[in-house]
């Protein structure tokens, strides 16, 4: 080994923080151990109900017994399609307790996509509510819970989950470039390593109250559930109406005395811009899933933790606390250092490590690396490799470009391929193209990401058969039936042909410029004839909406959501409204009042409501108060 490689190898090992080997018990066994130690401690609450550890384990074992009686054996895959809820956690734990692994499905996704995942996984049993089972036309559906009198003694025969470190924990699907999502096989040893790192790095313990905000098809859901339960803490499920509403989410975090929580980077940036009471119990606000553009201001009563990871590295590969702004810092906060029993390398195109400060592809090595892709041996062989300096260690090629800073922390640069991050999710534009191209009369399409003030927007350019005009509204409905919300293009434009570079390739830079130009023009079918603001409130709101949507101006009767707005952009809009008008508009109110005209009426109503609720002395000017 050369001196250069030896120094690189040593530096890489410093990035990892070794911890003692995890106990041999599987995830379900360790939760059961917690239940024996603290049976009456709160495990989870939400939706008007709660379970302590004793009842959580009892109900999960009852499900495990029913699964075993239905023929489930160790390492089988069982589909789990439930919303964020007590049932979701009972279902996941019950599947693990049966010795199987769960396939995480989000019931809010389109039926066609869920049916593909169900078939692709080979899961013969679906744990879900009966209505979802009917939607997906599943043959064998088990409810996560049954009335106490119907459970029988099934829990007595249930396993406590396999102890073998290489056993599967779950399968989660991520966007695939070939037109369909691909399943990632995540092992229990990686999940246990993640939980043990959380316990050490953030002092996660029985006193912690953690959030369950992420939808179950998003891998971060596992990062919320299992570190909390394995440390003996409690999970708290926020209502759907508040989880993307920054002021209301802040108030809920404070009222519920939450100590740790995770939100996607765009929402985290809104939360750290809000005022917080000094008495909040929140210790750590974790974020990730997208590039973090802002640092927390000094004086926030909690630490902001920036996490980097993918499904393929068991959610989190590296992490770091983001410091408040100061001179000499890089523009973007770093993504931190490797978690326990893992390390990072930056490699060149030949797969060899590069020196610190040199950009290259980020390689994640060690305990956090997942098993591979489900039923995709070629893609697994391409991405799941071994450390070039230590073939005994498994590694994953992330496709992300990064470099190591002078302090040893890792700085994210961009993607080395076409994958993009949208609202916290990694998206392959190729999967969107396949969904669009299935539409009749469509000959070809290209999807490009455009970066703007509100984050990344997906823009689709479609070419029809000669002489055919494509019904864009029908095409959007077609895409909605196949793709989740975060993968839907915010703009679809029909063109006769695509611009090309001098080398004959599609000129995607020109398409981005065309997308921005089209979105701003009145040729956009969602644009209306301009009606200018008629008062100061409408003018301010129109400017805010135009800025977020990259438009030169908006008509007061144009719909924020039809122009490309979505829930995270809505969260940013609500935050700005709160800051300027000193009122707290809810996300539900924004959905009900999506035009500048109706927003202004709602803001005026909130101001009047606020004034009516003030005591008379609070309405006096300083001079009037002195006269009294």
From TrEMBL:
It comes from the Bacteria. Keywords: Phosphopantetheine, Phosphoprotein. GO terms for molecular function: phosphopantetheine binding. One of its GO terms (biological process) is secondary metabolite biosynthetic process. Residues 1-20 are annotated as: Disordered. The keyword Iron does not apply. Residues 532-607 form the Carrier domain. One of its GO terms (cellular component) is cytoplasm. NCBIfam families: AA-adenyl-dom. This is Non-ribosomal peptide synthetase. It comes from Lolliginicoccus lacisalsi. The lineage of its organism: Bacteria, Bacillati, Actinomycetota, Actinomycetes, Mycobacteriales.
């Amino acid at each position: 080994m050369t001196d250069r490689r030896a120094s690189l190898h040593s530096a890489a090992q410093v990035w990892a923080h070794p911890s003692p080997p995890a106990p041999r018990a599987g995830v379900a066994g360790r939760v059961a151990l917690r239940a024996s130690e603290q049976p009456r401690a709160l495990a989870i609450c939400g939706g008007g109900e709660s379970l302590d550890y004793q009842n959580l384990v009892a109900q999960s074992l009852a499900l495990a017994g029913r699964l075993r009686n239905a023929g489930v054996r160790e390492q089988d895959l069982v589909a789990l399609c439930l919303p964020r809820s007590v049932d979701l956690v009972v279902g996941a734990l019950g599947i693990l307790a049966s010795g199987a692994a769960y396939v995480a499905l989000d019931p809010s996704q389109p039926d066609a996509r869920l049916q593909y995942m169900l078939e692709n996984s080979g899961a013969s049993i679906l744990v879900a509510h009966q209505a979802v089972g009917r939607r997906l036309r599943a043959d064998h559906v088990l409810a996560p819970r049954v009335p106490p009198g119907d459970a029988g003694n099934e829990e007595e025969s249930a396993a406590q989950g396999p102890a073998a470190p290489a056993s599967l924990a779950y399968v989660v699907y991520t966007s695939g470039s070939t037109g369909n999502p691909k399943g990632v096989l995540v092992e229990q040893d990686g999940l246990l390593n993640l939980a043990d790192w959380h316990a050490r790095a953030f002092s996660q313990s029985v006193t912690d109250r953690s959030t369950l905000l992420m939808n179950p098809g998003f891998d971060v859901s596992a990062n919320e559930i299992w570190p909390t339960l394995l440390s003996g803490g409690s999970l708290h499920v926020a209502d759907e109406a508040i989880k993307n509403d920054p002021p209301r989410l802040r108030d809920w975090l404070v009222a519920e005395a939450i100590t740790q929580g995770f939100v996607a980077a765009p929402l985290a940036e809104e939360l750290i811009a809000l005022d917080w009471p000094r008495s909040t119990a929140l210790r750590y606000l974790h974020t990730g899933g997208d590039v973090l553009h802002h640092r927390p201001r000094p004086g926030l009563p909690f630490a902001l933790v920036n996490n980097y990871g993918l499904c393929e590295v068991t959610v989190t590969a590296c992490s770091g606390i983001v410091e408040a702004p100061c001179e000499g810092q890089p523009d973007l906060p770093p993504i931190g250092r490797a978690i326990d029993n893992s390390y990072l390398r930056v490699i060149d195109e030949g797969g060899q490590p590069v020196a610190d400060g040199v950009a290259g592809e980020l390689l994640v090595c060690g305990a956090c690396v997942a098993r591979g892709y489900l039923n995709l041996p070629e893609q697994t062989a391409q991405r799941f490799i071994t450390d070039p300096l230590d073939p005994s260690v498994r590694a994953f090629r992330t496709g992300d470009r990064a470099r190591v800073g002078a302090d040893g922390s890792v700085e994210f640069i961009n993607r080395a391929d076409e994958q993009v991050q949208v609202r916290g999710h990694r998206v392959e534009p190729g999967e969107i193209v396949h969904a669009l191209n299935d539409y009749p009369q469509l000959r070809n399409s290209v999807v490009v990401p455009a970066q703007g003030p509100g984050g990344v927007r997906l823009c689709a350019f479609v070419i029809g058969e000669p002489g055919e005009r494509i019904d864009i509204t029908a095409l959007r409905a077609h895409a909605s039936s196949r793709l989740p919300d975060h993968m839907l293009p915010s703009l679809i434009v029909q063109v006769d042909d695509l611009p090309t570079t001098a080398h004959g390739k599609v000129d995607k830079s020109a398409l981005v410029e065309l997308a921005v130009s089209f979105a701003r023009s009145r040729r956009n079918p969602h644009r209306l004839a301009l009606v200018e603001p008629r008062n100061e409130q409408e003018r301010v709101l129109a400017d805010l909406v135009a800025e977020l949507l990259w438009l030169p101006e908006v008509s007061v009767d144009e719909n924020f959501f039809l122009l490309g707005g979505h829930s995270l952009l809505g969260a940013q809009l609500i935050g700005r409204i709160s800051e300027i008008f000193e009122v707290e508009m809810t996300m539900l109110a924004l959905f009900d009042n999506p035009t500048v005209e109706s927003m202004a009426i709602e803001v005026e109503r909130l101001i009047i409501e606020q004034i009516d609720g003030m005591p008379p002395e609070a309405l006096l000017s300083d001079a009037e108060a002195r006269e009294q």
